[in-house]
Design goal:
By secondary structure, the protein is an alpha+beta fold. It has two domains: about 100 residues, no CATH class; about 100 residues, no CATH class. The chain is built from seven helices and 13 strands. Strands 3-6-7-8 form a four-stranded mixed β-sheet, covered by helices on one side. The longest helix is centred in the middle third of the chain and has 15 residues. The protein is globular and about 50 Å long. It starts with a strand and ends with a helix. Bound molecules: zinc ion. Zinc ion (ZN) binds next to loops.
Length: about 210
């Protein structure tokens, strides 16, 4: 149970777990991806609330444990104010959780995926400044291409980019052979692996 406060100031308890196990409860995968997990209705004003609450996802069969921290805790975690137990991957906010679980489900290497996103972001930014760029992994299509959704190029529009699985495999091999490469090292900040570790830095220095 979670304690929730609505915009209307109503306090109530919602039956939303703070730890889920995707091996024993695989149905949660679909509810996360269709945006029904962490959503509830306020009993006072009937508003549909999208909650940004710390949640741990255990997926032993995929050798993965992920913790989703609220977006508001990004700086606290990166600044060592908020800590997370060792060995747990960190994502911030619901969109990053959906992205990371899709990567884990497809048994891809998240560092390699973030390296691809970094290249896609760099290419997308050539046409001008894109401070709100968000690139999310969506899945593998039947032509063996990795599908990425790109937000923030144009207001309220999503672009789709496909990357051949063969290119992913090349990058995966490069990550294995050159773990100390400055790009791959820069993508990782403690247990948070994301192209944003570099892209946000770049934006801050513009
Ligand atoms: Zn309410």
């Amino acid at each position: 149970m979670r304690s929730i406060t609505c915009h209307c100031d109503q306090h109530f308890m919602a039956d939303i777990p703070d730890v889920i196990n995707l091996d024993s409860n695989p149905e949660y995968y679909a509810s996360i991806q269709d945006n029904t997990f962490l959503t509830c209705i306020c009993p006072a004003c009937n508003a549909e609330l999208r909650l940004d609450l710390e949640t741990r996802i255990e997926w032993v069969s995929k050798n993965a444990t992920v913790i989703m921290l609220p977006e508001i805790e990004r700086l606290a975690y990166l600044g060592d104010i908020k800590t997370v137990p060792d060995g747990i991957s960190v994502v911030f906010g619901y969109a990053e959780l959906c992205d990371r679980l899709a990567v884990i489900k497809d048994e891809l290497d998240c560092l390699s995926i973030e390296a691809i996103k970094y290249h896609l972001a760099t290419k997308a930014s050539e046409g001008g400044s894109t401070p709100n760029l968000e690139i999310l992994y969506n899945g593998i299509n039947d032509r063996q291409e990795l599908v990425f959704h790109i937000y923030g190029l144009k207001e309220n529009e999503m672009a789709v980019t496909r990357v051949p699985l063969t290119l992913y495999n090349t990058i995966r091999e490069d990550v294995r052979s050159n773990p100390g490469n400055s790009l791959y090292a820069g993508l990782q900040n403690k247990m948070y692996i994301s192209c944003k570790n570099i892209l946000i830095e770049d934006t801050a220095h513009d």
